[in-house]
TrEMBL record:
Protein name: Dynein heavy chain region D6 P-loop domain-containing protein
Segments forming domain Dynein heavy chain region D6 P-loop: 50-122
Organism: Haptolina ericina
Lineage: superkingdom: Eukaryota
InterPro entries: DHC, Dynein_heavy_D6_P-loop, P-loop_NTPase
Single GO MF descriptor: minus-end-directed microtubule motor activity
Any GO BP annotation: microtubule-based movement
Pfam families named in the record: Dynein_heavy
Gene3D superfamilies from the UniProt entry: P-loop containing nucleotide triphosphate hydrolases (3.40.50.300)
One GO term describing the cellular component: dynein complex
Signal peptide range: none
Length: 122
């Protein structure tokens, strides 16, 4: 049964337990109880300011980059016009991130720092 599969996941792959429970809940209780409505990042953007950034705390497999890029286009912030920069954080990317932050702050652009969790000192 599906519940037995959940128990197997608990024993063999405990890190996948949240996903297994969502699937089990959807099957037993119905999808409407476990589905979350999509978040419109323009709602969050309304609360941001040049000195008030916003962060995404994500579940595995979630990537809001395309939504951020679309919001940027709506506000004339694109990589093409030099008003948006995407930096994927990782080994040795701190100087690039700092350059991007300073450069975009000077010209009113945006910086998207991906995977910032891999650089704990940030």
């Amino acid at each position: 049964t599906l519940f037995q599969k959940v128990l197997l996941v608990k024993v063999l792959c405990p890190h996948r337990m949240p996903t297994a429970l969502v699937q089990w809940s959807a099957a037993v209780l119905g999808g409407l109880l476990v589905e979350r409505p999509a978040h419109d990042i323009s709602d969050s953007f309304a609360y941001s300011a040049p000195d008030v950034p916003f962060f995404f705390l994500l579940s595995p497999g979630v990537d809001p980059t395309s939504d951020v890029l679309a919001l940027g286009r709506a506000h004339s912030k694109t990589e093409t016009n030099g008003k948006l920069c995407v930096v994927s954080m990782g080994q040795g990317q701190e100087p690039e991130a700092e350059r991007s932050l300073n450069g975009m702050a000077a010209k009113g652009g945006w910086v998207v720092l991906q995977n910032i969790d891999v650089v704990p000192e940030w």
